[in-house]
Amino acid sequence: MSAAVDPSLSRIPVMMPWLGEEEAKAAADAVLSGWVAQGPRVAEFERVFAERVGAEHGIAVSSCTAGLHLTLIALDLGPGDEVIVPSLSFIATANAVRYVGAQPVFADVEAATGNLTTATVDAVRTPRTKAVLAVHQGGVPADVHALRAACADWDLALVEDAACAIGSTVGGKSVGHGALLAAWSFHPRKVITTGEGGMVTTDNAQWAERLRRLREHGMNASAAQRHASTKPILESYLEVGYNYRMTDIQAAVGLVQLEKLDEVVARRRALAARYETLLRDIPGLTAVRDPEYGQGNFQSYWVLPSEDFPASRDELLAALSEAGISARRGIMASHLEPAYQGHPSAPLPVTERISRDSLILPLFHTMTEAQQDRVVAVLREQADG
Ligand SMILES: *Cc1c(COP(=O)(O)O)cnc(C)c1O
To answer: pTM score > 0.70 for this model?
Structure first.
């Protein structure tokens, strides 16, 4: 191994989780405690996480995808029901609807935020629509106050896919505050991580109880409850459930990550603000920014080149890659994937434009200003043709 490599010239990743000795020690403590499956650390992580987002209940699960699946079961959705989702999202959003046998109906998004709006939802609403699954895309909060009010008028349930959005706020309150049901992800591509993992939050005690049961094979008493009891508890299985549990090792890491959340979000926002300043003098590049009703965590920092920008998105990705910089295509359009071939969809022009032309720039906690300057220099060069 050469110690002479200048770190400023090493490859710049698009994202890197911020993990350290504290997380390693917390995981080791969980292992050494002898309790590694869902147990006291999961219960503690649920409590602290729910408090953080201002929800009554937190139900830890194995992934956000699993969490989304359970929210739709809790709402008793199934065949014959339609659920409105953005196509502009990681494909898990739409897939969760198909897990319960319901029909995902793709709605377009607004260009500024990449999120559903009351207008784009209204455009695809039918008498079979039962729910809306709104995403806080890339950590940009959706206008939940407007969406909640409209869904209440239309008698639709609003589920929030907050996979990317821990630390984002609407009206000064955490995303998920006041949500019927919200699902979160702790995948390493998100802002805090447990390796894999997810959470559902809700204020509804009955849903919370059912979600706890469903993540654990439909059992009426958890392994932790049985362990803690001095009398034998004979469990029964009240409905067909799943194994969607989080482990205590993951929760131990999550508890440490949650303590770092404010610092992580502050750093991401500072880097995003610096990007914005630097990119301002490059004509034809629009960067993601806060909507007027809230603040994002900049989980994904995306830029959208104008239609007449001298370089195509793929040319920009290639130029960045050549300069040792990992960037990514922008958020996918689920309706264009083979898994959705033949699936009916209204025209989604904004979704297709963002998905085709946008790219995600590197942004991670330990990113240096010099690294950021390298990214911007490549974009400037491409803008100059
Ligand atoms: C990452 C992501 C998911 C999936 O999260 P997992 O924890 O990996 O299952 C779902 N929805 C959105 C919007 C995401 O970005």
So the answer is: yes
